[in-house]
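Please decode residue identities from the backbone states below.
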């Protein structure tokens, strides 16, 4: 009998749905189907794909409340958060559908003096079949960032969702087929299971693999893909810092940081986990922050600010980080160890934990925040940059934001806000260091899911033809002079 994966509601443990655990052979068969569908999808061209993607988008929007309810049940997030997540995903599908043809159109290149009898162009061609492995925290928006982009660029896609959110993924994938009944099977497919199924996808012969998840799993995915030199894009974790300068609008900073840190139960790759605040405004900022955070509470009712922890094993990590920060001398200014429950975690804010504590150095992925007092913006930047991650960050300042932006070693930065970049379909998203590499979203994301093809066309025979064994003697004699004339001046 095929092994089964049971997905449950993290608020109640009720069963949401049951799925097959796909074996390596199952994954191979599904990838083979995606490969058969690839020429059809590629040949639709940008106009055909735009029509199919927009029809999928309209279907998702028309039936959005069904999907939103499912997101609430299987992931635990409040309905409003689920709606916001879906809205952002729809924006990205729309943008990719409409912009792929413009971004990926062939580009002329200069052939150069030596080959001036040629015309030269670059084409951006789809890889073929792209595998996408996704996490559970934003179960639609996050994988969609790779899926919609890879599809718009002309690839077929096989998607392996997290074991915690397969029902949401099933709904999202089926919606594509329902909205596009003329499309052959395999344009967008699903494989379900645990880590082994993801590993099987890496080894299934896909032409590119887009992974979003933790750095630890990212290493395993890269190792599996390396066996067949499958190129990868890695969207990994973060430890994002917000810097609050002495000239910041403190009320605005506190409001944004409270949302950036606690929203989605802190289970956000680009969520704020650390704050560095300049000493002169530290107390005033803390007052604003604690006032806002004290109004936030987890739950599954309509008024709850965020839901339960989606992945039970994460709770122990949050507890360890809180313990470590407090044991090292940090002061809990909101909540404390007792805030970490078995299902829900109340907000925790810890002041001045040691820089070396796990709460400051490792991804916590819970509704906790460390606040560190600094003597200058220089010190803030130095400490903010001193983790292995480099995903995103934020700066709050009236006059010094650009100085901080120039020195913060992350790939996305918000000024006087948080998270805005992720909602802008035209902006790229990616990391450095333990936060990964490559880009999804925006023009950079579209190019990530294509390979370039260089086409050089000889328009007429050149008098100086070097690309032949029949080179004239005078051409060969001319060459040393040509080198000096062109390059030695
Ligand atoms: P994991 O790394 O645990 O899992 C990610 C995916 O990889 C899941 O689908 C998982 O399957 C699968 N997987 C597990 N083992 C393997 C394996 N050996 N080979 C192939 N695939 C495997 O991450 P989480 O799901 O816990 O997601 C949270 C992480 O994602 C956080 O670190 C977060 O920061 C990061 N993230 C990054 C984003 C970005 O854009 N940079 C965006 C969102 C999240 P299964 O669940 O079945 O084990």
């Amino acid at each position: 009998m095929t092994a089964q994966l049971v997905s449950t509601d993290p608020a109640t443990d009720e069963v949401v749905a049951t799925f097959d655990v796909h074996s390596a052979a199952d994954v191979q068969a599904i990838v083979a189907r995606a490969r058969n569908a690839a020429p059809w999808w590629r040949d639709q061209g940008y106009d055909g794909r735009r029509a199919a993607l927009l029809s999928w988008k309209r279907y998702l929007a028309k039936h959005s409340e069904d999907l939103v309810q499912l997101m609430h049940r299987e992931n635990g997030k409040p309905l409003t958060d689920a709606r916001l997540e879906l809205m952002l995903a729809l924006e990205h599908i729309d943008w990719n559908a409409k912009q792929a043809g413009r971004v990926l159109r062939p580009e002329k290149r200069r052939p150069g003096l030596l080959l001036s009898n040629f015309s030269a162009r670059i084409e951006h061609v789809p890889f073929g079949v792209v595998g996408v492995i996704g996490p559970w925290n934003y179960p639609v928006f996050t994988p969609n960032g790779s899926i919609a982009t890879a599809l718009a660029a002309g690839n077929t896609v096989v998607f392996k969702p997290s074991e915690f959110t397969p029902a949401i993924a099933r709904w999202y994938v089926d919606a594509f087929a329902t909205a596009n009944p003329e499309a052959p099977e395999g344009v967008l497919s699903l494989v379900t299971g645990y880590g082994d199924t993801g590993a099987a996808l890496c080894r299934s012969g896909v032409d590119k693999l887009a992974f979003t998840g933790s750095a630890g799993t990212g290493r395993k995915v890269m190792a599996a893909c390396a066996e067949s030199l499958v190129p990868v894009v890695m969207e990994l974790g973060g430890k994002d810092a917000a810097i609050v300068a002495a000239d910041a609008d403190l009320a605005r900073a506190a409001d944004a940081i409270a949302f950036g840190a606690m929203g989605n139960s802190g289970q956000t790759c680009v969520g704020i986990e650390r704050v560095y605040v300049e000493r002169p405004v530290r107390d005033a900022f803390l007052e604003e922050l604690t006032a806002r955070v004290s109004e936030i509470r987890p739950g599954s009712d309509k008024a709850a600010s965020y839901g339960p922890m989606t992945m039970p094993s994460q709770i122990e990590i949050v507890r360890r980080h809180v313990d470590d920060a407090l044991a090292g001398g940090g002061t809990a200014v909101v909540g404390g160890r007792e805030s970490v429950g078995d299902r829900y975690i109340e907000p925790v804010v810890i002041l001045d934990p040691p820089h070396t504590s796990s709460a400051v150095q490792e991804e916590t992925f819970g509704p906790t925040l460390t606040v560190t007092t600094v003597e200058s913006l220089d010190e803030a930047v130095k400490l903010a940059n001193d983790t292995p991650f480099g995903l995103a960050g934020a700066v709050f300042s009236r006059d010094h934001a650009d100085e901080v932006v120039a020195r913060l070693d992350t790939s996305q930065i918000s000024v006087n806000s948080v998270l805005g970049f992720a909602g802008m379909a035209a902006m790229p998203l990616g990391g450095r260091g333990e936060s990964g590499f490559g880009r999804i979203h925006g023009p950079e994301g579209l190019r990530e899911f294509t390979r370039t093809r260089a086409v050089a066309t000889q328009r007429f025979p050149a008098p100086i033809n070097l690309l032949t064994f029949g080179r004239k003697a005078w051409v060969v004699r001319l060459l040393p002079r040509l080198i000096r004339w062109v390059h030695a001046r």
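Observation: Residues 120 and 456 are 5 Å apart (CA to CA).
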